[in-house]
# Entry
Amino acid sequence: MRATLTAPLAETAAGATAEAVLRACVHCGMCNAVCPTFRLTGDELDGPRGRIYLMKAALEGEAFGRETQLHLDRCLGCRACESACPSGVEYHRLLDVGRPFVEARVRRPWGQRLTRWAIRWIAIRPRRFRTAMTLARALGAAAGPLLGAGLRAKLNLASAPRAPAAEFAAQPPGVRMALLGGCVQAAAAPHFNAAARRVFARVGVDLAETPGAGCCGALSFHLDAPEEARALARRNIDAWLAAAEAGAQALVVTASGCAAFIGDYPDLLADDPAYAQKARRIADWVLDPVQALEARPPTPVRAPAQPRIAVHEPCTLRHGLKLPGRIEPLLAALGFEVQPVRDAGLCCGSAGPHALTQPRFAGALREAKLAALTEAGPAAICTANIGCWMHLAETAPVPVRHWLEAVDEVTG
# Structure
């Protein structure tokens, strides 16, 4: 597919990326078959091929408006299309250029602008998120008009009280690695990283969150604030490079959505001469926990209390990080009975803020995903991403937890 982009975009790294992605597309349509929104609506413009045409037209200077923005908003960014594409089209890289381009030129209704700003403002700082959790718990249903029904439901879930984690005897660490604290997860599910630290300590790895690092920037980028995302990325890069110089050998990220976004830091900062190479170094430094534990397999000391589980592979793990099918054998080796999951590659509907900005699509996709996950009667669902955990756990008929909690259970 040929493209002639308008200036000044054509002279930028983002323009070069968009042109390369457009050239790779042969508009065969195989991507539509795996696109969650196309499967729901049957509308060509709600599939990757249609969205590529919309973005191409916009980037080449043709007129566009709210309809283009609507169809781009509906995209989950799940990247299932990339896994299915025979031409290797990196659709998400085009989306990361096209969405901000359209956003800068099409003014949203004030209600959408307010909602997207509020989600960002609350979510990217753990202290604010904790305050919102306290408010949701204290006010109950009365918090709905203030926070919105969707956000209130997730805050109620996140603020559910949990038993304190059991103490453990850590082995002397032989390796040091940095650990992403993050934003929403740091407030809503700190037990995820606590489980990671215990598990890694048992295999001789000391995990430590890095002072100065925080939100990866994904929420800001996907909610119309790309410059805010770049500022957060630069702050993180500085903190993590300092950790690397102090001896940390890798950056472990227990939220696959964050890991996938950090992997895109080189695109995010491609036009920043001071940070472009630093961004590449950090992107190459990221490890998903499953990669680290495959190299240092944990040893079980007890059988699982409820061994029958289903594994939900987030899109960011399966299609973004390209690590499909890696968690299941690790858990099976620890004594879990991992049940098969139909349509494992389809999105659950979370997709970061998508569950809040597109609740109709998110709800339909969650219903289908939970039906598939619970088909074989598991006692629990294990996932690898904070957003997916919050989205699924809201209505799941069985407990949903991070897969590292399952590892922690049998190795502690």
